[in-house]
Each structure stands twice: as C-alpha cells, then as structure tokens.
Amino acid sequence: MSAPTRVPAGAPEHLTGPGSGGVGDDAERPDGVLKVRGEFAYGSDLWMADMLWGATLRSPHPYARIRSVDTSAALATPGVRAVLTADDVPGEKVYGLELADQPVLALDVVRYQGEPVALVAADHPETARLAATRIRVDYEVWEPVTDARTALGHRTGNQVHDSAPEVTELSRENAHLHPQGNLVRHLKIRKGDPAPAADVVVVGEYEVGMQDQAFLGPESGLAVPAEDGGVELHVATQWLHVDQRQICSALGLPPGQVRLTLAGVGGAFGGREDLSMHVHACLLALRTGRPVKMSYNREESFFGHVHRHPATMRYEHGATRDGQLVYVKAEIYFDGGAYASSTPAVVGNGGTMGIGPYVVPSVHVDCYGAYTNNPPCGAMRGFGSVQTAFGYESQMDALAAELGMDPVELRCRNAMEQGSTTPTGQVVDSPAPVAELLRRLAAMPLPTRDDGGEVDLRDMPGGVSNTTHGEGVRRGVGYAVAYKNVGFSEGYDDYSTARVRLEVVGGEPTATVHTAAAEVGQGLVTVEQQIARTELGVERVVVHPKDTTVGSAGSTSASRQTYVTGGAVKAACEAVREQVLARAQRLVGRTVPDLRLAGGAVVSDSEDITVPLADLLGDDVLEETLEWRHRPTEAIDPETGQGFAHVQYAFSAHRAVVDVDTELGLVKVVEMACTQDVGKAINPQAVIGQIQGGTAQGLGLAVMEEILIKDGTVRNPSFTDYLIPTILDMPPMRIEVLEYADPHAPYGLRGVGEAPNISSGPAVLAAIRAATGLPLARVPVRPEHLTGT
Amino acid sequence: MDFLRPTTWAEALEARAAFPGAVAIAGGTDVMVGINFGRLRPASLLDLTRVAGLQEWGTEDGAVRLGAGVSYARVIGELGDRLPGLAMAARTIGSPQIRNRGTVAGNLATASPAGDAHPALLAADAEVEVASVRGTRRMPVRDFYTGVKRTALAPDELIAAVSVVPPSGPQQFSKIGTRNAMVVSVAAFGLALHPDRRAVGTGIGSAAPTPRRAPAAEEFLAGELTSAGLWESRAELPEATAARFGELVAAAAAPIDDVRGTARYRVHALSVIARRALTWAWADYRNDPAKEI
Hints:
The structure holds two protein chains of two kinds. Chain A is an alpha+beta fold. Chain A contains 17 helices and 34 strands. A seven-stranded mixed β-sheet of chain A has the order 4-8-2-15-12-13-14. Chain A has a six-stranded mixed β-sheet with strand order 10-19-18-17-11-34. In chain A, strand 25 and strand 26 form a beta hairpin. Chain A is globular and about 75 Å long. In chain B, 36% of the residues lie in helices and 22% in strands. Chain B is built from eleven helices and 13 strands. The longest helix of chain B has 24 residues. Chain B is globular. The N and C termini of chain B lie far apart (54 Å). The chains are: A alpha+beta, B alpha+beta. Chains A and B meet through helix 17 of A and strand 11 and helix 11 of B.
C-alpha cells in the first residue's frame, strides 16, 4: 500500500506540528490501547451486582392489528420480575427523532416485523427471553405495503415528468399506515428552464438495496433507578441529549431526573441515532426498582435499529454535444419503512444534493420519502447522498459513453467549484476542488497485473475458494465523485456545548474537556485533546466522561463533530486562555501584546517572559462553558427548493479497479484510490482511517451488503448472510488528502467521515460495468446480475 | 442443561446411550451458534473434546483415519499432501478461528447441504466410522446423508472417525461464495481422479437437499478418458469433454432459490466450476507423469 499523501494547499501554518499531540498531529487515541487489547468496556459489558435482564417481545408480522395481549404465563414464570406493555408507558406513548410517530411499545397496530410489543425483566437473560415467548399476542394479520411508490399511490414505472405523478387510490382500508397518509416528505427543486431541451439526452433508472450499519457492538445499556424517582441510563448512543428528550417524554419525567452517561460504543454509522432499548430499560428499572440491563444479540440487533433507505431513482440528463450539462431531471423515492425516523432529513439531502457536485443550469427534482411496512429506515453514513450518487454517477458514465467522451473529462467539464451555484441556488463559498480530485486520481498509476507467475488465489475473484485461476477474468476501472453536506442543514439550530477547565494537578497544568459528544469509535476524544493542547499549550488533557451534566453537543453524525464540537472546544479553550492571559498581564503589571500559552507556561516571543501555569494558577480553577454554533443555514422554499440549505460541503472522489470473473459473476476489487479535501487534517491518521473505513462500507454496498426483504420480512438477519467485506474483499488503497481551508470553519477543517462512503460504491459499480460491458442498474451487484441467471 | 464430559471413548458411548437427547459437541462452531441464537436448547451437551485419542489421525489399511476431533486447521497443516481435496475444502471454511475449532466430523454430524467438507469427502470415496455401545460400523459417506441436515446416525451413535484413501491422482475443490472469504457456499464442487481404478469421483454441495455425487458425469468422464486412452497418454483433454462434464455435473444438481443465490445461478456456476476443476486436475495429471498408475 502506498503511503497516503497529504497535499499542503493553503492549510493554516500557525498550528502545532508533528509530535506535539496538538492539532495536525497523529496524536495517539486515549482509548486505543484498551481497544486493541480487548480491554475496552463496551455497552454490552455493563454490569451491576443486583441487576435484572430485560428482553423484548417483537412482532413477527410486518403489519397486523393486536387484538389482545396476555402476559399471565410470562408473569408466572419463576424469576420474572416485570412484564410491561404499552399500557405501562406513563408518558407520551410515541416518540421519534423528527416526528413522534413510533410507539414505545406497540399500541393497537404493529407496522413492521420486529416492532417491540412487550418487555420482560428477569433474574437471568435466558429466563427473560423464555418468558417473552410465553406472552400471548392475538394478531389480526394485514397485508403489508412493501413498495414506496405503491404506498404513495404513484403509478410505478412512470417517466420523469414535470407535473405531479399520477396518483392512484390504494384500495384497502388499512393502506394508510399513519393517519396523515404514507407521504413523509416530498422535496421539490425547480431551478432554471422548466422545459429545457438538449442535444443529447440520457435516461436511466437505478435501484439501491437496503444497507445495514453492521456495527459490531449490539444495542446495549443499563438503567439504574435513582433515589429521587428518576433514572440513570448508561447507554451506547450517538446523541445523549436527543435520547434524553425522548426518554423524558415517554417516562413523563423532567430532564433533571433522566441522566444519561455514554457507555462504550462499538460503532454507530447512524444506527444509534434512534432509540432502541433506552426507554424499555428505564421502564423496567423504574417498575422493579432494580438496575436493568438490556443487550441485543446479533439477530435482534438487525431488528433493533433503522437501516439505510432503499431507493429507486429515475434520472434524465441533457447535455450539449461537447459535454456541457444543460439540465437534470430526477425522481427519487426513499422507502422509509414503518416510522419516520430521519426520513425527512434524508429526503432533504437526497433531493438537494441528488444531482452530484456539478453545475447544471436547469434542475428539476422530486424526492419522496414514504411510509411502508418494511423495516424503519433512517440515518446511515452518507445519509441520502449514498443512494443518489449511484444514480447521478451512473448517469455521468452513460452520458460520457453517449458523447464518446472520457468519463473523467466529462465530470471535470461540469464540476462544481468555488463560486458555483448549487441546485438550491446556494453559492459555494469555500474551495470545491472537484475537478482537481478527479484529475489527481486519473494521474495515479494503475495497479499492474502479475502475469505469468504463480497464481495467488487471494488475488483472484473468489479468493481461496478456488473458483478461477484467471479464466473468465476481466479488469475494469471506474471513477466517481461525490459531495455531502457537513452538519445539520435547512435552518436547524446546530450547536455544541463545551466545558473546559484548566487547573494544576500534581504540579502539572491539566485541562479537562467536558462535552456530551458521543465517541463512537471515530476518535473525537483524541480531537478534543488535540484542540485543547494546541489552544492551551498544555500536554495533559483529560476527556471527561460523556454525559448530560453538560449541555448538548448535538449528534455524532453528519460528519459534524470535529467541526461543531471541535469548534465549541476551541472556543471554550480560547475563553479560558483569555482568563489566563489576563492574569498574566496583571502579574507582569503591563500590557505585553504577544503573550501566548505554550509548554505549560505563558510566554512572550518579544520579551523574555516565561510564567509557568503552575505558578500563575496555584490552586485556582479556571473554567468556561459555552455553546458554539456554525453560521446559520435556512429552510428551503417548499415549492422551488431554493435556499442556503447547507453550511459546508465535503468532497471526495474514488477510482476503483476491479477484476470480474465474467463467467461466474464474482468480483475482486483490486485497488481503491481516493482523493479527498479535508480542509485541515486535525488528526491525519484518523482521517486516513475514516477514508479507508468509508471506502470499505461503500464497496460493501456495491457488491454484497443488503438486508433482503420479502413481503416485509427480513430474510438474512445475521452476519452469516448479511455479508460485509473481509480483508480479502477490501483492497489496498492509494489516498491523497487535500487541505484547502474552509475560511468559515475552525482551523479550516471539513467534516471527513461520510464523503468517502458516498463516492466509493459508485466507482466500484462503474468499474464492474467497464469490466463486463453490462448496464448494471442495481446495487448490490449479485453474481446473478453479472451472469444473467 | 447437563454438560457431560467423558474422557474415554467408552464413556462417551455410554453417555450417548444413556442420554439420547444429548447433542454432541466438539469444536462447537455449529452447536454454539444454535445455542446462542436460541435455536437449539438440548437437554444436555456431550462434550467430546476431552476424549482421549479423538484428536488423533493415523494411517490404517492404507487409508488416513481422521479422528472425530481433528480440526480443519490440522487437516490443512498436516494432511495437505495426503488429502489434497479435503485440505482445499478446509481452507475455504470460515475464519482461522473457526478452522482451529471446527472438525470434519462436526461437518458430517450437522450434515448441512452447504457443509464444505462434503463434496471433497464424496469425491474421495471417504468412509464414515460410527460407533455405539452396540458396536462399530462403517459406511460410505454417500450413504451417510439421508436428508436435509439428517444422517444415518442412530440416536445412540457417535461419529468416531472418517477414513479417506490418499489419492492416486489429482483432486480439486472449488466453492462459490458471494464474498471472497468467510462465506457460506452458494455452490461447491469436489473432484477426484482415480487413475489407479480408472474412475472419477465427484461431490456437489449447496445444490440439493443433501450433498450428492454426479454419477452420470463420473461415468461419462471415466468412459471418455478410458476410451480415448487418456489415462495412459496423458494427452490434452478435449475442451468439449470438459464442457460436457460440467453440464452433467450441473444436471445432477437440484438446487433451490434462497438468500444466497438463485437455483439458476447455482446450476450455471456448477457447470463452470466443474469444468474448470477438471481442467486444473487434468493439467496436474499431465504435469505429473512420474507418478505411475
């Protein structure tokens, strides 16, 4: 693997360098050694001496009315301490991230397979699970609605159109899953010529299957009843405060009585934005007066969190003969499943960024999110942009083929750049090096083939399963580029809170950073330390446990925490620094303009001043808590989609090289190359990790990862049949990290985590098309698609 | 749940007879998954890992006798030359951790149509040695599989060993999965050329209710090789012969559609991997003229 290259391109120079543990350094993770040694305590390791175990009874049906629930046999099981149903929910009985539409426990209707119906607490997990099976639920089974277009009453297979889709009435009485109907959101973009014409027109339909986050640490938490009648919840999650809000609502308790602490999180990728066992464990703990642990097994985990929205898309691209885009029309359907979760925001992203990082004079997008009886879908890394990238990048390749142009050249010719206007009418006001990302990729050497030597099966499609020694293997190369908003958009008040304390501990100046920002494996705790080291000039930085005794940090999602919580920590450090420097001025007795903090002391470069913090602070503790916001965005116009919707964009591009066994339809990705602009790499090693991980997740969706649903029922809820890439599926990478500072962001940084997850899969798909010549329109690509079987 | 831990084979057989509801466990790579997911709740577990001698292999009457507790990792590491087909199959199983624990006998006892060892055992004409307090009997592996995850084992019997005669000719194993490692097979094929008796052995996995042979393909190929004098001449194999062999292997399958693949794909893939396996085996045979038949 070639060493990742960083391209210094205008990144701020004043920051501390390698080895400092500060901003820009490959600082060591505080949790790294524990994790590598297997000693890190995850949510599933939580334990208290007198705790009970909770279990959940879930609906086997995707759509049914509950006639009755009989808990008597479960309650009579020795060792059982409580059995709860919806009747036992004291507060609001429905919750949700954006819309409160999801029952804490099923009310009269279940709308997806796996919907929680009842809870059991018992002395032993086996007892709890056994008792759950003894709960008798009488269901009137209904026919599920399992297709988004059908759910909306839209005629299927219709052309991209200017008017509203033809609506047909759903015949059945229960065809509306929710009182307001099956439409969660319809986003419209109307920009430019409403009836554009072009020399060359390419139309394509595409489909993306349902991907799972496949985090390794299952949903887990421990609820402990408190003496004040409240509850303490230790839980693996992505946003403590939005959990707290929903738990309070369901329990009918004020925030002061519902206190959350982050447990060790074994990956998230969006799958922990929604509640899972949170309220359930609290209900059981409050009922029994005992600590209650809930930890899903792998199969239950597949039913315990939302997935990535499956999508069907229809695109029409018009261009001039020389390859200038004239217009794009798109119709995008996201299947949101049974409850809203993040569907409105996913539709927001899918719609506003649904044509890719290109300059297009006329844009006409209809993006829908629908309720169906499929599993609920919500947040997953890339959030609405992953799906559309398969569509628009497939279109760019199709258009290039139609024009006889090089696909990279066509993309560069239409690439967004600083100063360009997006489909929402927003002027891109920071670097947007789309064309450079592509040209750098194209300039990288291609991997060579080993010809004539001994066949190493690990390099072949099929791996050591010994399916080819080269027979039928053809190579293909594909490119894709993507962009993604960073942070919460469309007018959301997106902020984070940081509390920073500076004091002398054991003679050493020590900073403590306290935020509620969830560390989910990405390394935010490291970034928090690095920022404090740089801003306060101290080496020792303690990261306080993440909990709700400090204000909200917002969600660990949308590639936003380094930007927003990083910004808050930076601002809080600056406020502490001002206090320190003011003290130093007072001590020195006059104004020294260039006083700064470095090496645990206040120093001046112009004068020979060194005041150790240990002397300056003594026993005093300096502390600042503040909220920090990125510049506001605004809601988009409901009829035209125009508005300043997004605060920042992240850009990445991939080149995929694949070998396809064209006879067997097996794929070996030979190399992935990625270029990404990160503005400023706060921790370069962590940036590389995000790019590698995001690439693997995108590759997985392209060639293997899919939750298979039949009639609303999940067919593969296990890692036996929900496949994620292994080391033999994920190839070595070439990575170039660009650092074009965004003048609006702290340190000039850009969010990193999602963009590489978006451009990776479409590049793999393009490479498979190039290898096979097949017009593949669906991911994941299966051997059947490649062999016509 | 009782946990029975015999230390001798006689104790194990007695326990098996005394606790008919017991599930035998060696590597646990199938049993523990069933237990962890609540699909298996046996009255008792019969742990065979402490039974003296069960982890040994040796030679007996010219055959390699694999004790029921021998792991896949040891098949790969210690028997790659003597049991090449089985070792190739073992390499495709799970992860290193699974191969360190899982056993060939466990694969037989579970008798999943997707078990990776089966095609190799079928092609090599392996024998299964089963025992009970009533005595010991041996059967060809092709008679061992009686239905989907059902075997010829009587309720009081345990698998003692698997016997495989080291080959007189080349062997191949090929498995289709939708991932390049750690994957349950979509279709698998085992091939053994037996020049000493002018015979061909085959085994098909994941493409019928049980692992099965492809008798018509075996007869066709053995006939072609014999009638054209190819066993002796080691001349090039006609492409049409390899292709026809592949078709006949595919025709022996009776697959279903499931989450891992369609029946059509399985049939197609079998025809391809059977043809390729034959061309590789034949190339090995041609390149090894020193080995007398």
